[in-house]
UniProtKB/TrEMBL annotation:
Lineage summary: Bacteria, Bacillati, Bacillota, Bacilli, Bacillales
PROSITE patterns: CBS
Protein name: DRTGG domain-containing protein
Organism: Lentibacillus kimchii
Residues annotated as domain CBS: 195-254, 256-314
Protein's UniProt keywords contain Ubl conjugation: no
CDD domains on file: CBS_pair_DRTGG_assoc
KW rRNA processing (keyword) present: no
């Protein structure tokens, strides 16, 4: 027979998503003490089936899936911006797909507002009504309230209408950061998920001779092997470049590369990827806390994992997503990319933000290098000159010019135009990740 604690959890699971829960109500419904009800509700919160929101209460939410991203709900948005719900509490569990900054007239605002989005706007009641009728939630900035009619409409539509004391630009930055936080919660994020366990037969010992390297190379076709001491701890690496011109009878410890870079199982994939680019290495030993060899991770392993991450679905759009989706490819051999400045790409005064400007330049440069089959880039240095402000709805052209492109490095000059006027200029120094 289930305990009272288990019965309460089962009861909570049976409630509809968005249902408001209270300790007193649970205690009365299931004839248990309020202390028992309180502990069970806290356990339900730990399990991710309810969420407690200040000035709102505890509501039943959909259990988050660990297979992909945690979903960013309107309830979480309230916590992020330290706000409160004015109406539409039943919709707080719903997922945020994208946000729209209402820094424009009502008609163009309507074009960008769609079901499942969040309109960030000030004290404009007509905008609140338009968004709710379009199926979007509303976040009012500046600490303003709305009228009772809008609150009732939010309840009818089961769409939250919320308020925060922060300004529009700050709110957009906070939410965008939260979406980025979701992006790092991937299924493959640690070395532990991708490394190849090293067999005893595919390692070298310090006392081996170079003849052993040739035997392993013929057996496995690999050219890089970790070198361990008599206790199994990594002492060096030996690759094909280390053996050139060396006698086959020479001991491994005389020619190996000492003090190699190593990683542990809980090292992040992003760290390993950047380290391989900066250091120009192909294979990294994986060790335990005592430096004993557990396996190796190769550049190919890292690239395959990054490709798998990119194929995973995501919830919500970041600024980089918007930039990449709206940047059109060149229609001719001339390397010119085109886009239009949307509200999400602007700052608090309604012009193209500095961050989006640099993202546009970086993305255009990456595509230009990809067209020459130079691989993906990692920006090492970026110098940008902002010459003129670019208002909402302006058409922008980005023209990257590759000045140098070697095997590892590239230099790209980028010019940005609005109409015939140059509005920005940049110079990128990049590392290349060869595909």
């Amino acid at each position: 027979m289930a305990t009272k604690h288990e019965q309460i959890l089962q009861h909570i699971l049976s409630l509809e998503i968005g249902y408001k829960i209270s300790v007193r109500q649970i205690a009365k419904t299931l004839n248990v003490s309020e202390g028992t009800a309180y502990r069970a509700i806290k356990e339900a919160e730990n399990q991710g089936i309810v969420s407690t929101i200040e000035r709102v209460g505890t509501i039943r939410i959909e259990r988050k899936s660990k297979d992909n991203f945690d979903k960013l709900t309107y309830a979480e948005v309230i916590k992020i911006v330290d706000g409160q719900a004015l109406g539409g509490h039943q919709g707080l569990h719903k997922t945020l797909n994208k946000f729209v900054i209402g820094a424009m007239q009502l008609d163009p605002m309507k074009r960008y507002t769609e079901a499942g989005s969040l309109l960030i706007v000030g004290n404009r009641v007509e905008a609140h009504e338009m968004a709710l009728n379009e199926g979007a939630a509303v976040l009012i900035t500046g600490g303003f309230d709305t009228n009772e009619t809008m609150k009732k409409l939010a309840d009818e539509k089961q769409l939250p209408i919320m308020t925060t004391s922060y300004d529009t630009f700050t709110v957009a930055t906070m939410i965008n950061r939260a979406i980025y936080d979701q992006l790092i919660k991937k299924e493959v994020i640690f070395v532990d998920d991708i490394y190849t366990p090293q067999e005893q037969s595919l390692r070298l010992y310090m006392t081996d001779t170079l003849e052993r390297w040739y035997a392993l190379n013929e057996q496995s076709t690999h050219t890089r092997y970790p070198v361990v001491d008599d206790k199994g701890r990594v002492a060096g690496m030996l690759s094909s470049k280390d053996i050139i011109g060396k006698d086959r009878q020479i001991r491994i410890d005389k020619i190996m590369s000492r003090n190699p870079i190593v990683v542990q199982e809980k090292t992040s994939l992003a760290y390993v990827a950047h380290m391989m680019v900066w250091e120009g290495i192909e294979v990294v030993p994986v060790v335990d806390p005592s430096s004993k060899l557990k396996g190796v991770v190769s550049r190919q392993d890292v690239l395959q994992a990054l490709q798998q991450i990119q194929r995973q679905p995501q919830v919500g759009e970041t600024i980089d997503d918007i930039v990449g989706r709206q940047l059109s490819s060149p229609e001719s051999d001339e390397m010119a990319f085109h886009t239009q400045v949307t509200p999400q790409m602007t700052n608090q005064i309604g012009t193209l933000s500095d961050g989006v400007c640099t993202s546009l330049m970086t993305e255009a440069s990456s595509r230009a290098l990809s067209r020459q089959k130079k691989g993906d880039l990692v920006v090492e240095n970026l110098t940008v000159y902002f010459l003129k402000p670019v208002p909402i709805d302006s058409k922008v052209t980005i023209k990257p010019k590759i000045l140098e492109a070697g095997r590892i490095y590239a230099k790209v000059d980028v010019e940005m135009f609005s109409g015939n006027n140059m509005v920005g200029k940049g110079l990128l120094m990049t590392h290349l990740i060869d595909r």
